[in-house]
Design goal:
- With 517 residues, the chain is α/β, with parallel strands linked by helices.
- It folds into four domains: 173 residues, Hypothetical protein VC1899 like domain (Restriction endonuclease-like) (Rossmann fold, 3-Layer(aba) Sandwich); 177 residues, P-loop containing nucleotide triphosphate hydrolases (Rossmann fold); 87 residues, Helicase, Ruva Protein, domain 3 (Orthogonal Bundle), CATH 1.10.8.60; 45 residues, Arc Repressor Mutant, subunit A, CATH 1.10.10.
- It contains 21 helices and 16 strands.
- Strands 3-2-1-4-5-6 form a six-stranded mixed beta sheet, with helices on both faces. The chain has a six-stranded parallel beta sheet with strand order 7-14-8-13-10-9. It has a two-stranded antiparallel ribbon with strand order 11-12.
- Helix 4 packs across helix 5 and helix 15 crosses helix 17.
- It is elongated, with a radius of gyration of 30 Å.
- Keywords: ATP-binding, DNA-binding, Nucleotide-binding, Transcription, Transcription regulation.
- InterPro entries: AAA+_ATPase, AAA_lid_NorR, Homeodomain-like_sf, HTH_Fis, P-loop_NTPase, RtcR, Sigma_54_int, Sigma_54_int_dom_ATP-bd_2.
- It holds the Pfam family HTH_8.
- This is Regulatory protein, Fis family.
Length: 517
């Protein structure tokens, strides 16, 4: 395959009855086949004209493809070579018939298995964006399964339908089919699993990350590890150090529109004031790799349209250039601590850009949730951070730090508004303090001391120290109700876990909730 061919689209569709009818009509008209006795319609002379040769040729005639794959059920297997000759009359592209074991073309199960077998062999993550699927040929089962496959398991390409010439508006017979989703919009962490964060990342890596055409949106509070998750996805999927490119959108948005475009897409020398040399944009640096759009919610609305265009067309153009650059297998991972759907509702973020970025979105848990619902994972996290600190600083590497039980209790009971970032800082300060005082054991006092040093901004308010309620029983009842609701929210209404967090008997909690109703 030549380099030019490797950039061409790859066509996939079933062979449908309309395509067979057009082919047979033409063959009868040309005298290649006799007209069947039971088919009077084939005796009508057939004229081979653009747009009138059936759904497949409406799409493929006079167009260039790297390959045309036509899937055939058992019904058409005996005439598949004739179908191939018919399709090749309208194109010079290579055509291959895929004979499948589908005997009942209305069977969703048979069609699914055949299509899955074909795509698992011929589709790949590297070529995903080049695939074009024509949904029109075939039975409703064939159309539905092809659409499903093209949007979920083998996503990344584009889907189309063809319409007969007499129904075409503005003479457009090929129409793109889009869905309001490419994958289910949210994958929430399962707090009942052994290690919720790592399990969820592993799930994404296994199912979706190998497909670079799938854009991933990481959600969560500041400090939960969104950057680390993005890097993990990149490297576990074969990425290299030199093509994981981070773009801090908050920093880029601080400049003017030209600077924003120049950073992302590049600029030619002299294309705007202050551009004194050619600049390669971050997207181009991420070719065959990953671009990580951190703090993506900070992009101003006017600049959002520029980013959307690049994601839609998979092409970029540097400022001052007239040549578009094709994006080759660039995975886009974005992150924010905003509620982007709220931003969409409030007109601060484009809805179409949101759905481009959030093909697969993952909400990373905050540290409070992990500490309350999965203490074993919390302990693993602390141990991992301590080991990382020893590797990073030579002064710490020879000391085997141990945490006492009261140190663990202190860590587990803290609110952690700064999440993993704050935990890391507390552990770093605590290990240095212990080392300088000749200790390898870190107790609760050391942790508490450095929790007070690592301060974070919190929006939560608490009563003043001298606050006295005018009705103590009512105030205590309100506080109890509030705390129980918080525990249920934290555990996603799992009464067993909520009772455990609160130190209550589950039956007692159940009775309280029943009375509260």
């Amino acid at each position: 395959m030549t380099e030019a061919e490797s950039d061409l689209p790859i066509y996939v569709s079933w062979i449908g009855t309309t395509d067979i009818y057009c082919m047979e009509s033409w063959r009868v008209t040309e005298g290649l086949d006799p007209a069947p006795d039971n088919s009077s319609r084939l005796t009508v002379p057939f004229k081979e004209e653009p747009g009138l040769n059936g759904p497949i040729r409406t799409f493929t005639d006079n167009k260039k493809f790297s390959k045309i794959y036509l899937l055939s059920s058992k019904e058409y297997e005996s005439i598949s070579s004739q179908v191939k000759d018919w399709i090749c009359r309208g194109t010079k592209s290579k055509c291959q018939i895929i004979n499948t074991p589908v005997e009942d073309p209305t069977s969703y199960d048979e069609v699914y298995k055949a299509l899955d077998k074909f795509l698992s062999k011929y589709w790949s993550a590297d070529t995903a964006s080049r695939f074009v699927f024509n949904l029109t040929p075939g039975t409703p089962a064939m159309q539905a399964i092809l659409f499903y496959m093209s949007q979920v398991r083998y996503s990344g390409g584009k889907t189309y339908r063809t319409v007969p010439q007499k129904y075409a508006r503005n003479n457009k017979q090929i129409l793109e089919v889009t869905a309001p989703f490419s994958l289910k919009p949210d994958l929430y962490l399962n707090t009942q699993t052994e290690c919720p964060q790592s399990d969820e990342i592993e799930k994404v890596i296994e199912l979706y990350a190998p497909v670079k055409a799938i854009n991933i949106l990481l959600l969560g509070e500041s400090g939960v590890g969104k950057s680390s998750a993005a890097e993990k996805i990149h490297y576990r999927c074969g990425g290299k150090k030199d093509n994981f490119i981070t773009a801090n959108c908050a920093e880029l948005a601080a400049g003017d529109a030209n600077m924003f475009r120049a950073e992302l897409f590049g600029a030619k020398k002299g294309s705007f004031t202050g551009c004194t040399e050619d600049k390669t944009g971050l997207f181009e640096q991420a070719q065959n790799g990953t671009i990580f759009l951190d703090e993506v919610a900070e992009i101003p609305l006017p600049s959002q349209s520029v980013l959307l265009r690049a994601l839609q067309n998979k092409e970029i153009m540097s400022i001052g250039s007239k040549k578009e650059v094709r994006l080759n297998n660039v995975r886009v991972i974005s992150a924010t601590n905003h509620n982007l759907l709220e931003d969409v509702k409030n007109g601060k973020f484009r809805e179409d850009l949101y759905y481009r970025l959030a093909m697969c979105s993952i909400t990373l848990p905050n540290l409070r949730e992990i500490a309350c619902t999965n203490r074993e994972y919390f302990r693993q996290l602390v141990t991992t951070i301590l080991n990382d600190l020893k590797k990073e600083d030579p002064k710490l590497k020879d000391t085997d730090f141990k945490l006492t039980q009261d140190a663990w209790d202190c860590l587990l009971s803290s609110q952690w508004p700064g999440n993993i970032r704050q935990l890391r800082h507390v552990l770093l300060l605590s290990t240095v303090y212990a080392l300088n005082t000749g200790k390898s054991e870190i107790n609760g006092k050391i942790i508490s001391l450095h929790l007070s040093k690592v301060t974070t901004v919190s929006s939560s308010s608490s009563p003043a120290d001298d606050f006295i309620p005018n009705d103590l029983n009512q105030w205590l009842a309100e506080q109890k109700d509030k705390i129980i609701k918080n525990a249920l929210k934290l555990t996603r209404d799992n009464t067993s876990k909520a009772a455990k967090i609160l130190g209550m008997n589950e039956q007692t909690l159940y009775s309280y909730l029943k009375k509260a109703k």
